[in-house]
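Q: Could you predict the 3D structure of ABC transporter permease?
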Amino acid sequence: MTAIALSRVSPIRRLARLCWRRKAASFGAFVTLLVVLAAIFAPLLTHQDPNEQDILAQLSPPSAEHFLGTDTFGRDVWSRILYGARVSLAIGVASIAVAMVVGGLLGILAGYRGGRVDRLIMSCMDMLLSFPSLVMGLLVVAVLGPSMGNLIIAIAFTAIAPFARIARAPTLAIKQRDFIEAGRALGYSDMRLMLRHILPNILDEILVLGSLWLATAIRTEASLSFIGLGVRPPTATWGGMIRDGFENMLDAPWLVIFPSIAILVIMVALNLLGDGLRDATDPKLRNE
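A: Sure. Here are the predicted C-alpha cells for ABC transporter permease:
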C-alpha cells in the first residue's frame, strides 16, 4: 500500500520539495530558470537581430550600442547568445527527453522480463557505453548529416544506455514487491504493471539523472557545433559562436569568452541541481 500511495504523488512535486531543501540544488534551479527565461524572452532583452550584419561595426568591442561587442560580420554578440540559448536548450531538453523515454522503457522491460530479454538489452547498452558520448554523437551526426533534428537523435542515442541502467536496477527490486504480485493475481497485464505501477516508483531517479545528463547534452551540442557538425549557420549556437570567434581570439577575445561563460554557467547550474537532487533522493544522505 505504501508503494501504491507513493506512485500517486507527483514525482515532480517531490523533487521540487527536495530541491527547495538543498541550497546547492535551489541555487542551480534558480540560475537554470534565469537562463530559460532569458532564452524565452530574448526579444524583450535585446533590440538587435541576431543575424543582422553590420560590416561597419564588425569586431567592435563591448559598448553601449553592442553590450557584448560584435563578431566578424558585425552581428551583435549579446543577441546571438540569447537566441543561441534557445537552440542549445531546445536540443538538450529534446534529446534528453527522448533518451529518458527510450532508455527508461528499455530498462524497465529488461528488469521486469529478465532472462534472455534482459541479457540482450543490457548487452546492447554495454556496447553503447563503450563509446564516449562525444565520439558516438560524432559518428551519428557524420552519418545522418548536420541538422537540428539529427543532432537531437545523435545526442539522445548517446544517453540511452545510462537511463536504461538506472531504470533496470530498481525495477529488479520493485517487481518482487507485494503490490506487483497482487496486480498479477488480479490479472493485470505486464504493460499495465510496468507503466502504471513500476514506472511512477522509479521516475524520481530517472528525472534526477536527466538533470545531470542535460548538462552533458548541452556540452555535446556545443562540441559538435564547434567542429562544424551542429546546426547550420547563420542560426546562432553557443558552440558555433566559439568556432566563429576562434580565429580572432587574440584580437577580439569577447567572441570566445562570452559564449564560453554562457556554457559554463548553465553547466554548473545543472550539475548543482542534479547533484543536489541526487543527494536528496539518496536514503543514505537524505538526513544529512
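Q: Anything worth pointing out?
A: Residues 1-8 have pLDDT under 50 and may be disordered.
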